[in-house]
Design brief:
- The chain is an all-alpha fold and 273 residues long.
- The protein has a domain at 103-272.
- Helix content is 58%, strand content 0%.
- It has helices spanning 2-27, 66-75, 105-118, 128-141, 149-162, 167-170, 173-184, 196-211, 215-231, 243-272.
- The chain is elongated, with a radius of gyration of 37 Å.
């Protein structure tokens, strides 16, 4: 009985719809005007168009996000780090004493020249005029006191890599390792504020260990260089900034990237054969 009733209801609705369609056709004449105005207008009820809603006033633009960034740094410490562009410069750890012994000037000049000729053209991760000026200032003062500890690590890592391009010094194993050990001691791995010099130092140490056929040490220091570079945001587009700083960030990142690709290829080749 229920199904028959449903069928009857559908037939009745269909009949009413056909009547409405016929009435609408009869209402239109050739000019598009109503033919019979006596037809009730409530046969077909069309919904009214929604009136345009009034737009809510836009929020006031904030021109200075200084307070927002400060709150993120304060309350998000240990949980969230803002993008590299908006981070505060990390606190540099300075040398409180004279530091390690400085090699003789003539030996340092020779090792720096060998580094510049052998490695610098393939991995220009140092702005040489700036670095050379810092070295000259070091020999004028005669000690590392008051200087950045991480720069001490970069300096000795450069000297260690410089020993790789001279036959007489290359055979003297303790010389290169002595420089490298002095550099490792000045990399503060407990600090949360790494800089681009940390990436430079760890990459140069990986290069030195690789040339000495210490594959495990080279691989570990290369991983440290990659992670340090990513932590510094070197893998991202630096955007706006001083042109030299932007260029050096790119050079350091691509130097690390190229060395990582080469080291990965050599590692896979040795494991395969």
């Amino acid at each position: 009985m229920s199904s028959m009733k449903q069928v009857q209801d559908l037939e009745r609705q269909l009949h009413q719809a056909r009547q409405q369609i016929g009435q609408l056709k009869g209402m239109m004449n050739d000019n598009g005007a109503p033919h019979n105005s006596s037809v009730s207008s409530n046969l077909l009820v069309l919904p009214d168009s929604n009136p345009a809603k009034e737009r809510a006033p836009a929020p006031r633009a904030m021109k200075n996000f200084f307070k927002v960034r400060r709150n993120i740094r304060n309350y998000g410490r240990g949980i969230f780090k803002p993008p590299q562009l908006y981070r505060m410069p990390p606190v540099q750890i300075m040398c409180q004493d004279d530091g390690p012994d400085i090699p003789p000037k003539h030996l340092a000049d020779r090792l720096l020249a060998q580094y510049k000729m052998g490695l610098h053209p393939f991995a220009p991760l140092l702005h040489w005029p700036t670095f050379q000026g810092e070295v000259d200032n070091l020999y004028r003062t005669g000690s590392f006191k008051g200087g950045r500890k991480i720069w001490v690590a970069v300096f000795f890592a450069v000297l260690a890599c410089g020993t790789l391009f001279n036959e007489t010094i290359h055979k003297d194993e303790p010389a290169g390792f002595t420089y490298l050990e002095a550099g490792v001691q000045h990399i503060n791995s407990m600090s949360d504020g790494v800089t681009i010099d940390h990436a430079r130092a760890t990459l140069l140490m990986s290069v030195y260990f690789s040339d000495r056929s210490l594959r495990s040490a080279a691989w570990i220091w290369l991983g440290a260089a990659v992670r340090t570079a990513q932590e510094c945001g070197l893998h991202q587009d630096p955007g706006q900034g001083p042109p030299m700083q932007v260029e050096m960030r790119r050079r350091v990142w691509w130097s690390i990237y190229n060395w990582d690709r080469w080291a990965s290829f050599v590692r896979q080749y040795l494991e395969h054969y």
